[in-house]
Amino acid sequence: MRSIRRDTLVALGLLLICGTFFAASFDIRETSYASLGSEVWPRVILAVLFVLSLALLAQSLRVKDAPAQAEHAGLGAWFAAYRNPLWCYLLFGLYLLTLPYLGMLAGGALFVFATLTAIGRRDLRALAINAVIGIGMVGFMWTVFRYGLNVILPEGELFYGW
């Protein structure tokens, strides 16, 4: 008999959480001034998460068991296996620490550039592409939030009043 894999348990847990949150969305208070009910967006997001969790469950049940790996491969092997996620967490932590100083626009562009550089190629062409993606995407997102949605984003102390 095949043992239950970790990703199968995670998918089942996510499905349970999505169902619980969806049931709780029926307790969201209706407002009289909204043209769209306040429960609509949580339910849309939960439906997307439910579909993604179902896809994870299907994939975890479809994939055959991987060969057993050495349990005590060492700390260096663990760091090598999880290098990219660790870089992402570290860089995101630095982004959060520098957000009051750099602001969302400069800090976000720097974060995206640094993350793409850390987990991708590091030649001159890739660095140029990473810079364009970082500046372009964060600039686009900032413009949508600032002018399209009228959300005031953190400016940062270094660029305050520019």
What does this structure look like?
With 162 residues, this protein is mostly helical. It folds into two domains: 6-62; 82-148, no CATH class. The chain has helices at 6-24, 40-62, 75-81, 83-119, 124-148. The chain is flat. 10% of the residues are buried.
Descriptors for this entry?
mainly alpha, single chain, flat, 2 domains, 162 residues
Q: What distance separates the N and C termini?
A: 65 Å
Approximately how much beta-strand content do the residues carry?
Answer: under 5%
Structural class: mainly alpha
Mind describing the biggest β-sheet?
none
Question: Count of helices?
Answer: 5
Number of strands: 0
**Unreliably modeled segments:** none
Radius of gyration: 21 Å
Number of domains: 2
The oligomeric state is single chain
